[in-house]
Design brief:
Blueprint lengths: L2 E8 L10 E8 L2 E6 L2 E5 L9 E5 L2 E4 L16 E3 L10 H6 L6 E3 L1 H8 L6 E3 L4 E7 L2 E8 L17 E8 L4 E7 L11 H5 L5 E5 L4 E2 L2 E2 L4 H11 L3 E5 L11 H10 L14 E5 L6
Parallel strand pairs: 1-10, 4-7, 7-8, 8-9, 13-14, 14-17
Antiparallel strand pairs: 2-3, 2-18, 3-4, 5-6, 10-11, 11-12, 12-13, 15-16
Amino acid sequence: MTGITKEITISNSNSSSNIDTGSITFIGNATVIIRYAGFTILTDPTFIHMHEKVHIGYGLYATRLTNPSIDIKDLPPIDFVILSHFHGDHFDQVAIRELDKALPIITTPHAAEELKARGFHRLDKLETWESISYIKDDIKLVITATPARHGPLPVSIFLPQVMGSILNFQTKNNQPLFRIYITGDTLVFEDIKDIPKRYPDIDLALLHLGGTRIMGIMVTMDSREGLKMFKIINPKKAIPIHYNDYDVFESPLENFQREVTEAKLEDRIRYLNHGESYTFEMNKNKK
């Protein structure tokens, strides 16, 4: 099934709906804060600290090698969370314990069931190509779940359902403003090619890298797959995330940087340190 599953109006906005600029703040791993057009969005919240462990299924654990740039108590007011899938390095025990259980979360059906069992109750689950729409003041944000596969077949069958996301910011009259693609934990596979067919003109992509290996099998993009994904999606700019933070990552950021340099694409990639923000501008041609 495809199409809009729900339309939600957010009232009493406390944030500016400036459409000229926005920002991406990198907290660590796949956790970022997206601010644009009056919305403040949190992705894949993980806030454990260095040397602490998260469960990644089947009795396996991952150890964090870094600290998040802020603690969960220091988050700004959040409109909603986009969660690519339910794994400990994407929604950890700190998020389970300390996030407001009434905070809206957009995620996969599998993750929604897991979160419901842990007390969260404002859950919107999306199957591939389904969308949910948020309206705040004069801005509409349509979030669409895109294809993603957490590992090669048949291994992916035994891993959590995962989704990528398109964030399509537009006016209430459907005039396009800015388009963000978040890959989620995926490898490149045939269905990924449908994303730019349905959503060309992507302004910014967040690439989940790391080359995660579980029992020797790669289940997230390494540097080569990351570059392949970039070329398929062809965004105006991309930011790599989800690397170097956990001991299951075997493809360091330096590998991706080398691939980017060899491909002569440095001007289209923005690297962020923990706590650093990237400020983007709306394409003036869209006004």
